[in-house]
Amino acid sequence: MTDLTIRPAAPSDMDDIARLCWAYRALLIEREAGLPPMTAKFYPEDTYRALIDDLPRIHARPRGDILLAEMEGTVVGCAMYYPLALDGVTEIKRVYVDPSARGTGAGRKLIETTMAHARADGYTRMVLDTMERLTEAIALYERLGFKPCDPYYDVPPAFLPHLRYYEHPL
């Protein structure tokens, strides 16, 4: 059995975080083929580069965090959360597991650990959005007890049919 560890990110992990986030963006682009260009709208390349550089601030303790999945000394996944303007609500973002580690439970453990950290930080509800074509992610969220909810930010009408929103009490 492979040794899987979930741990908070350190400043020295930024290259791995960037690698995983760019792979996540590439997956979104691949999966949205034939759909309106959501990734270009939400994550244009220059803006996404700046976002990645700003992740340590956006997800800073004590109200957020970046968690990493590590197997055999290699960072293979990430998940992060931060506060929303809604009282007691946090959003989990950029949950991604490298293809080499899929099927190992890394995604499940990342999400469960992120939920536990958010609960310990005082959040009472976690929300997320995902693309309808990320069926593996949707199945995992639903197995973990996430339930569909209304959008919690403004969405261009052309994108709305292709996105799914979920929530989970903490």
Q: Features of this protein?
A:
170 residues, alpha+beta, Aminopeptidase, 7-stranded mixed sheet, 5 helices
Proportion of residues in extended strands: 25-35%
Q: Looking across the biggest beta sheet, what order are the strands in?
A: 1-2-3-4-5-7-6
Q: Looking at the structure, what is the overall shape?
A: globular
What is the level 1 CATH name? Answer: Alpha Beta
Mean pLDDT: 96
Biggest sheet details? 7 strands, mixed
CATH homologous superfamily identity: Gcn5-related N-acetyltransferase (GNAT)
Taking Cα atoms only, what radius of gyration do you get, to the nearest Å? 15 Å
Structural category: alpha+beta
Share of helical residues: 25-40%
- Predict the CATH topology: Aminopeptidase
- For the terminal residues, how far apart are their CA atoms? 30 Å
Q: What's the structural domain tally?
A: 1
Number of helices: 5
CATH architecture: 3-Layer(aba) Sandwich
Q: Which spans of ≥5 residues are poorly predicted at pLDDT below 50?
A: none
Report on the structure:
This protein has one domain: Aminopeptidase, CATH 3.40.630.30. 36% of the residues lie in helices and 28% in strands. It has 5 helices and 7 strands. The longest helix has 18 residues.
Tell me briefly what this model is.
By secondary structure, this protein is an alpha+beta fold.
